[in-house]
Amino acid sequence: MEMNLLGVGLPLGLGFAALGSGIGLGNAVNGAMQAMGRQPEAHGKIQVSMIIGMAFIEALTIYAFVTVFVLQAKL
Amino acid sequence: MGFSGSLDKDFLRRVERTTLVLGLVLGLCVAAIAGARGSAAFITGAAISVVNLAAIRFIVQKVIQPQPQVGFRLAMGLMVKVPALFAIVFLCMKVGLPLTWLAAGFSLLFVVLLGKVLSTLALRAAGIQVSEPRAKRTRHEGDSGTTQNDGTSQGASNGTSKSAKGRLMGTAGTVGLLLLLGTPLLPSLHGKQEGWTTKFWTEQRSVLAADAANDLGAGTDAHAGTDAHTAPSAGEVPADAAHTSDTAHTARTAGTQEQAHTAPADLLAQHEPADQSNDPHSTNQQGHDAPPQEEHSADENQATPPAGVHTTMETEKGTISLFNPDKFPKRNEHGTEEAHGGEHGEGHDDHGGVQHFPNLLTYAIGIMRPLGVSETVIGYLEKYENLIFALIATIILGLLTSRAMRKPEMVPGKLQNLIEYLFGGYYEFVRGVLGDEAKRYIPFVGTLFFYIWCMNWMGLVPGGHSPTASPYVTFPLAICVFLYVQYIALTRLGPIKYLAHLAGDPKDPVGWAMVPLMLPLHLIGELAKPLSLALRLFGNIMGEDTLLALFAGLVVIAIPHVGGFGIPFHLPFMFLALLASTIQALVFSLLATIYISQVLPHGHDEEHAH
């Protein structure tokens, strides 16, 4: 029986993608929170930018996630 | 004055505009049914009819001017127009555009005309005057020099406010129509191209042995590389047969993937004898010897187009196998392949692969099948599942808003309060990004937001299903955004400025030197926008629904171990899903807003990151 490396690679890859995204998200939220703390009046604008940025960062994990589902067929 | 009031220049102009837009959209849709040629023919047909109408309008306008030799002018105009029209049509046919689609495109204008006339009449019957004042006003201004300066001018005075309203309604209607058209049509088109039809993940519910067999032929067999099989497998059974899956529920052999692994011998036996005899696909190019498990597709095919239609789609095999997760049967020790028929729907049995809650349609089909409803109908129901739920979302939104706003009051009731709060809040939100331009683009992005939001949440309702968990819904939405943004860029910025914008607004030598680098970068970025929009929404919602279904499955599994009652493991994720659905809808529409703001004349100083 052959080992299918995808079975190892897919979860690992998704995990790495999530790791990177997590760091990025942490950075983004960190920056946004500090900015909000410093300038509470700019709260709304910062939040909007933060959400957009988070969406972009998160998208990377989603790509990995979609890839997993796409390649799952080959498992 | 009867109906003549709205059959003026402006009305015709609006008809032309609508026809052009509709022709483009429908033409793109036709592409999937009739190929590039049919699409080109359709669009050409629509364009010809529009040009034709414009020419007629021009001629009539010239003719009715109070000048001598009217007959002569008319004759001259017709002499130019009629042969030109015939020449163009002849040319098109010479090029090889199919006449049917040409005619269909040509008749689109009349359909639009009829629709507009009817809707105007209906609205007038309902006591609403949509944009007629505006039409009168423009005509009044446009033809003030001509003879027909009749008594319609009083409409112009109070026309302004009403026309703005009518225009808003018109825009909203158009956008809604576009979304509606865009959303459902794409999947149906893919219907023609095999595996895609069988919707992505939802086909889970309706897997059939034949489907799996074909998929395995298309995909795994080539890649699996396992050797010890005595029986040559399906080889490359044209995966088109996969698309028959929609109708092929008769083939629903029981058995999860696990069961398939252990391959009950009787199932195998049942499969084997049938293949050579009535495999409709065995003559296909890939040359496989004995595709097993084909007896199912044989009886499916009565409900589907003849196999020949699909045989050209071989190139898509990669895609199919890509997009058919979980349908890949494993081999067992005997070297045969067993499809797992899939008990989808009812219980969340875990057979690997993606899981979904059963929804209303699943139940409805479950009821209908024993009642003897034809497989064609059921196949259509399954095929258009996303469409049906998207339609339900539209209906919900429409009913809700129309109910809430039928008699708007100063002191709003509950429903009106809710709607006003949501819409007002969203409007303020968009205004934070677009500024004063928000009023102009709120119909589009607002529709996007509430539509997507509603669709996302539908997956959380028992018996519901998120259409956005399918790429066939998210991609059309994203393409709508893409097209709309390009349209805004071209009209508001102008082609030259837009090009400059894409080249990074070069001002100094350094900037000009960067153009070769910036232009492709921006172009790719522009194309990546819809892709990332669609993938983000689809991935999020699909992942969310899958997560919920998985945990709900866990509940079922855990029941015997915790004393016969269920612990709702998926409840926390339900709240997460509520939140995430909202945020994803927000992100989608917010990104659309930002893309719009980037291409507005002054909007490209900030938020350039993408």
Automatic annotation (TrEMBL), chain A:
Main location: membrane
Any single Pfam family the record assigns to this protein: ATP-synt_C
Site entry (Reversibly protonated during proton transport), positions: E58
Topological category with respect to the lipid bilayer: Multi-pass membrane protein
HAMAP family to which the protein is assigned, alphabetical: ATP_synth_c_bact
Known role: F(1)F(0) ATP synthase produces ATP from ADP in the presence of a proton or sodium gradient. F-type ATPases consist of two structural domains, F(1) containing the extramembraneous catalytic core and F(0) containing the membrane proton channel, linked together by a central stalk and a peripheral stalk. During catalysis, ATP synthesis in the catalytic domain of F(1) is coupled via a rotary mechanism of the central stalk subunits to proton translocation.
Identification of the protein by name: ATP synthase subunit c
Organism placement in taxonomy: Bacteria, Candidatus Eiseniibacteriota
